[in-house]
Amino acid sequence: MKKRILIFSALIFALTGCNSSPSNSDLEDYLNPIFDSCKNLKIVDIKKTNGYQEDGYYRVEFSYGLELKDPSLLDTMRNRWNEEKEEEQRRKEATENFYATRDALEKDIEKSAQDIGINVRFTSLSNEIIVRNQGFSAEVTNGTPEFLQEKINKWKNLVKNREHAIESQKPFKIFGSEETIVYKNYYNGCNPSVKQFTKSLFEGQQFALLQSDDKTPLFNEYKVKVNFILPMRKTENGWRVISKN
């Protein structure tokens, strides 16, 4: 009789103990809804790796992966970034050419004016030149020689066209803000609670790439493998993550 009781007790223990620790599905039931808010980022390959009882809860060790739902978005961003990078180079060259042309023209105007006894002063208003008689007189000359006026008009048109070109420039959407744009792409739409499970996404090698002068690696997809630990407790509704605070 005692032997039967022991066998029966062992059977009961086996039946009740078959769900005595969280499973992969329990982890998936908790993690997947958290990542549902993300438009681009997803969690994959959730696998329990270890676990044990500790202070009234179960310490679950598990691993998972992080990757993009649609990596082609990064390709689109890379193409746009390359276009903007080329445009930035064109703007830089245009700026250098403008200053070189303007400086040379100003020297020419100043020399031509001095040769005929006239002073010229370029004001803080970029398209204004004040032409004065030499000496202590502050009177503006009434008649600027035609050849000098032509050079002055050329200078004014040069500056005016430059200002118009700058005003017409459209701001870059990606170039110059690569880190921010890529970061937002990964976390687009994500609930704030996602952050605790994605801290390693931009750490280590990825973080070094973010700080590098070479921005092209930013547009390569980061597939990260993460090891994590969660405290869980068995309830009437199954295994639930608990707060240790």
Could you walk me through the main structural features you see in this protein, from its secondary elements to its overall organization?
The chain is an alpha+beta fold and 245 residues long. It has two domains: 22-71 and 177-241, no CATH class; 92-168. It contains six helices and six strands. The protein has helices at 2-17, 24-35, 72-115, 146-168, 178-187, 205-211; strands at residues 41-54, 57-68, 118-122, 129-133, 224-235, 238-241. The protein has a four-stranded antiparallel sheet with strand order 1-2-5-6, with helices on one face. Strands 3-4 form a two-stranded antiparallel sheet. Strand 5 and strand 6 form a beta hairpin. Helix 3 packs antiparallel against helix 4 (146-168). The longest helix has 44 residues, at 72-115. The chain is rod-shaped and about 100 Å long. The two termini are 48 Å apart. The model is unreliable at 2-18 and 133-141 (pLDDT under 50).
The sequence of SSEs as H and E is HHEEHEEHHHEE
| Spatial strand sequence of the major β-sheet | 1-2-5-6
Q: Give me the count of strands.
A: 6
Helix content class: 40-55%
Mean pLDDT comes to 82
Please report the distance between the alpha carbons of the first and last residues: 48 Å
Radius of gyration from the alpha-carbon trace, in angstroms: 35 Å
Gross morphology is: rod-shaped
Contiguous runs where pLDDT drops below 50 for at least 5 residues? 2-18, 133-141
> Main beta sheet, described?
4 strands, antiparallel
Helix/strand/pairing class, anyone? alpha+beta
Helix tally?
6
Beta-strand percentage range = 15-25%
* Count of all domains: 2
Keywords: Signal
Protein name: Lipoprotein
Signal peptide: 1-25
Organism: Comamonas suwonensis
